[in-house]
Amino acid sequence: MAPTLALKPGTAWSDAWRRSLAAAPEAFRDDRVLNLWAGSWQPDGRSLPATSPVDGSPVAGPPRLDPQTAGAAVRACLDEHRAWRHVPLPERRARVTAALDALTEHRDLLSLLLVWEIGKPWHLARADVDRAVDGVRWYVEHIETMAEGRSPLAGPVSNIASWNYPMSVLVHAMLVQALAGNAVIAKTPTDGGLACLTLAGALIRREGIPVTLVSGSGAELSEALVRSPEIGCVSFVGGRDTGARIATAVTDLGKRHILEQEGLNTWGIWEHTDWSALTAVIPKLFDYGKQRCTAYPRFVVQRTAFDAFLAAYLPAVASIRTGHPLAVAHPEDPLPELDFGPLINAAKAKELTDHAAEAIERGAVPLYRGTLDPARFLEGQDTSAYMAPLTLLSPPASSPLYHAEPFGPVDTIVLVDTEAELLAAMNASGGALVATLSTDDPATFARLAPQIRAFKLGHGKPRSRGDREELFGGFGASWRGAFVGGELLVHAVTDGRDGERLPGNFPEYQLMP
Predict the structure, then answer these.
(1) Which portions of the sequence form the region Disordered (predicted)?
(2) For FRET with 217, which of 168, 320, 372, 513 sits at 20 to 30 Å CA-CA?
(3) How deeply is 466 buried, as exposed, middle or buried, from its count of CB atoms within 10 A (0-12, 13-18, 19+)?
(4) Which of 217, 166, 162 is nearest to 193 (CA)?
(5) Which DSSP category does 303 fall into?
(6) pLDDT in tens, 18-36
(7) Tally of CA atoms within 13 A in the half-sphere of 220 that contains its CB
(8) Is residue 7 within 8 Å of residue 378, measured between CB atoms?
(9) Once rounded to an integer, what is the mean pLDDT over residues 49-58?
(10) Cβ atoms 230, 156 nearer than 8 A
């Protein structure tokens, strides 16, 4: 009989909250977080209730600002920007370095907040913090070359990002933008990461870096955070529907923009025989329950190889581990090594379950349906946000699972007979961030790769967003505006010579780096 699990001592939400109050008393109150604008923490906004995806228990909810207050925050951010853009680069480097040192000092607390707020297993939460810190340190080291001959934008950078990578995407971007000479304003994600970002914001603000952090409805704050004339650039990470609305607004206004949107990232199998390599990589593709912009939810498989593909795939997907990310059998045990914990909330788990059921009713074939192991959870805990891996063959074209990114542990498989069918299926969403083609013949890969509409393409290996000097962007509707990564991230938030054409997808041109 498996031992009964319990929460590891010192990891309760109450522990994380108490430690946050002690670490940044200026940013937290007894039962809520504050908004940061005009250089100080403000007790404004209407706090809404929120729950942790881990077990459905209450956590701090966002103090949502009204549009008028958000507008005041933007105007105050512009005032800070006008001063910060003239701060010498050596001083900006020193302040950003001090902020990174503070984030490093509070690494474990930031990670624990991520576990509770967005459900990341411990090792993935720590990796999110580490990637943010290590990535910005690289920019601190190389900023002089990347910013040479360039100047900060006329106004601050506005950041609107999804909840899945608060540190390694959002905080990373904010610090690089500030390092390049811009004041920055960010909206906390609606679905999670509030307390982690608040603590990070407090540590950064203490070093005199002009960051503004506000909460609110995207629809209500869009006028201030996107359309305000004070804003010099809009940086967005999220879904295509919201991204399309922002793209329309920034295009109408001629505003600098970086819009990373979803795409259906695909993994093609054609004339392939190295099945052991595929078996080894499948569990890695389920990191964080595939709640990442570079997840691979679609396999496009040559029909004649389908039996061999299943023999490699099914044992691997059956090995996926999910459960409570903070539950241990004995107090001294390390936190569990899980591939993923809960999805971001119970509503998302239900939505995906409903989409899968509907797809099966319309003809999809369930190839694998995992189950939640009670031995990996606390006795009697709420598991409504958890979903075991699920694999469907031939989702119908009428299903959202056919053409959209599920953002959860649901794989779909499409069988093809010709190279033309392979390419059409791999390009189903009209453009993606990443893709992979597994084929034994290098010449076949070289011939087919240019026809796959993904910014990054792997040969039998997954591709990721990348760090430091690695560039990142997307084809089609998966990306609008300037590409990022390496010097391109700095160039995207600075001005160069007159008439400069930044690499990216713009209404008037597309320019690859």
Answers:
(1) 45-68
(2) 168
(3) middle
(4) 166
(5) G
(6) 999 999 999 999 889 999 9
(7) 14
(8) yes
(9) 97
(10) yes
- Alpha carbons within 13 angstroms on the beta-carbon side of residue 352 total 29
- For residue 269, what are the β-bridge partners? 301, 438
In the numeric block, which tokens belong to residue 358?
Answer: 């509907």
What is the rounded distance in angstroms from the CA atom of residue 12 to the CA atom of residue 447? 53
C-alpha to C-alpha distance for 195 and 188, rounded to whole angstroms? 9
Q: How far apart are CA 117 and CA 331, in angstroms?
A: 22
Residue 222 near residue 250 (C-beta atoms within 8 A): no
Alpha-carbon distance of 4 to 268, in angstroms, equals 42
Helix, strand counts (H, E) of the chain? 16, 25
Q: Is 134 exposed, middle or buried, given 0-12, 13-18 or 19+ CB atoms closer than 10 A?
A: middle
Predicted model pTM: 0.96
**Residue 118 — φ and ψ, nearest 5°?**
-130, 5
Query: What are the φ and ψ backbone dihedral angles of 59, each rounded to 5 degrees?
Result: -135, 175
How far, rounded to the nearest angstrom, does the alpha carbon of residue 501 sit from its chain's CA centroid? 27
The model's confidence at residue 180, banded by pLDDT at 50, 70 and 90, is very high
pLDDT on residue 3: 79
Say how far residue 123 (Cα) sits from the centre of its chain. 16
> What span, in angstroms and rounded, lies between the C-alpha atoms of 171 and 159?
10
> For residues 149 and 225, what is the distance between their CA atoms, to the nearest angstrom?
28
For 101, which DSSP code?
A: H
Asked if 313 and 24 count as a contact pair (C-beta separation under 8 A), the reply is no
And the tokens for 237?
């990470």
Q: Which residue stretches of 148-239 are H helix?
A: 172-179, 194-205, 218-225
Q: How far apart are CA 228 and CA 239, in angstroms?
A: 22
d(CA 305, CA 282): 17
Helix axes 89-105, 122-147, angle to 10 degrees: 170
CA atoms within 13 A on the CB side of 480: 28
- Residues 128/292, Cβ–Cβ less than 8 Å: no
**Tokens representing residue 126 in the block:** 């720590």
Kindly tell me the burial class for residue 513, based on how many C-beta atoms sit within 10 Å of its own C-beta (0-12, 13-18, 19 or more).
middle
Q: Are 187 and 160 in contact (CB under 8 A)?
A: yes
The three-state secondary structure class of 233 is strand
- For residue range 148-162, list pLDDT tens digits in order: 999 999 999 999 999
Alpha carbons 393 and 216: distance in angstroms, whole number? 40
Neighbours of 481 (CB within 10 A): 27
- C-alpha dihedral sign at 415, 418, 424, 426: positive
